[in-house]
Write a structure and sequence with these properties.
The chain is an alpha+beta fold. Helices cover 21% and strands 31% of the residues. The strands form 2 sheets. It has a 7-stranded mixed sheet, sandwiched between helices. It has a 5-stranded antiparallel sheet with strand order 11-10-9-8-12, with no helix packed on it. Bound molecules: biotin. Biotin binds next to helix 2, strand 3, strand 6 and strand 7.
């Protein structure tokens, strides 16, 4: 399924397979399905029943892009939206993917677990890990050309980049981070983060926790020191008061 966008030619930096495939250095990213408008690349990948490990779906825009914790992911043209199939279950995958994201974009800082923030603290990218039976669907959204919300930023505000190069670099970097030991992942994540050492407001399910973000647990949990003691947060949304 290949839908060529924007008339007869491809826009500079297009993530279409003919531009992407020559730049891939590893196994992730093949085979690749490039689509125009879809509900969500996660849906397309979930429906691709015989997709092998590393299969990739890239879209130009999404009508029902979704983020973590049931939030929408606003997906206008000009940004990057893709999903990769990973068969291996790994509790540190969200952190590994966050490290690949910051490396591929080449700037920014990570908010737990894997939001990419611009140097001035606006959201520039995010990662959603979903399961479809035994399969892991890793979805990535990066605001390359357009900041869709007043609270978000676009990479182009800071540097000139090509979407296809960010995508190729992400896939290669993720492959490297997946091969590295857990302690190394935790150590590197701590050196690129905007969360630890700060007072934080964490939404967990229906609850709001206030405390100091002090560390990461062995499986990438956020260790929060609250008035009542230490709490390990497995999934939640961090804000700063
Ligand atoms: C977040 O920060 O909340 C995660 C955002 C993940 C968005 C990406 S865009 C590609 C893939 N398809 C989706 O519907 N969501 C992910």
């Amino acid at each position: 399924m290949v839908v060529e966008e924007r008339g007869a030619g491809l826009a500079p930096g297009s993530p279409a397979p003919q531009c992407l495939l020559p730049r891939l250095k590893g196994r992730l990213g093949r085979p690749c399905r490039y689509v125009g408008t879809v509900s969500s690349t996660q849906d397309v990948l979930a429906a691709w029943k015989d997709a092998p490990e590393g299969a990739l779906v890239v879209a130009e825009r999404q009508t029902r892009g979704r983020g973590r914790l049931g939030r929408p992911w606003v997906s206008p043209p000009g940004n990057l939206y893709f999903s990769v199939l990973l068969r291996e279950a790994d509790p540190l995958l969200p952190l590994r993917a966050g490290l690949a994201l910051v490396e591929a974009v080449g700037l920014g800082i990570l908010k737990w677990p894997n939001d990419l923030l611009s140097p001035d603290g606006r959201k520039m990218g995010g990662i959603l890990v979903e399961r479809s039976g035994p399969r892991g669907l890793l979805g990535v959204g990066i605001n390359v050309e357009r900041a869709p919300l007043p609270t978000s930023a676009a990479v182009l505000e800071f540097q000139k980049v090509e979407r296809v190069q960010i995508l190729a670099d992400f896939l290669w970097s993720l492959e490297q981070w997946r091969a590295r030991a857990g302690e190394e992942v935790l150590r590197h994540w701590k050196s690129r983060n905007a969360t630890l050492g700060r007072e934080a407001v964490v939404q967990v399910g229906g609850r709001t926790l206030f405390g100091q973000a002090v560390d990461l647990g062995p499986n990438g949990e956020l260790v929060l020191r609250t008035e009542k003691g230490i709490t390990l947060v497995r999934a939640g949304d961090v804000g700063f008061p």
